[in-house]
Amino acid sequence: MNLTQFQEYCLSLPGVTEEFPFGENTLVYKVSGKLFALTDLVNFESINLKCDPETAIELRERYEGVTPGYHMNKKHWNTVETHTNIPNKLLLEWIKDSYDLVVASLPKKEREKLGQ
C-alpha cells in the first residue's frame, strides 16, 4: 500500500476528515472528531489503527508486521507496517474495522448522520 491509496481509502469513508493535530508530518484521520487512523506523512512506513483488544493480540501473533500501537494505548491500537507481505486487501479491511469500531462508539445521532 502506498500513501495515496491510504489517503484515498480513508477519505472515501463517510464523515472522515484529514487533520494534522500532532504536527505537519503526522497525518490523522477522524470520524466525528474521533481518531481511527494515523501515519507519518514523510516516512509512510506504518499505520496506527484502532483494534478490538482480542483481535489486536491475534493479529500481532499472526503477522510479523503488526505490533502494539506506537505511542498509543497498546491494548486498543496496532501499528501495521505498510511495506510487508500483508496484502493491500487485508490492510483495507483493517482500516475499515478501525473506522467501524470508532463509529460504533459514537452516539446514535452521530451514527445516523453517517448512515449507520
Automatic annotation (TrEMBL):
This is MmcQ/YjbR family DNA-binding protein. One of its GO terms (molecular function) is DNA binding. It holds the Pfam family YjbR. Gene3D superfamilies: 3.90.1150.30. SUPFAM superfamilies: YjbR-like. It comes from the Bacteria. The keyword DNA-binding applies. Coiled coil: none annotated. InterPro entries: YjbR, YjbR-like_sf, YjbR/MT2646/Rv2570-like. It comes from Chitinophaga nivalis. Keywords: DNA-binding.
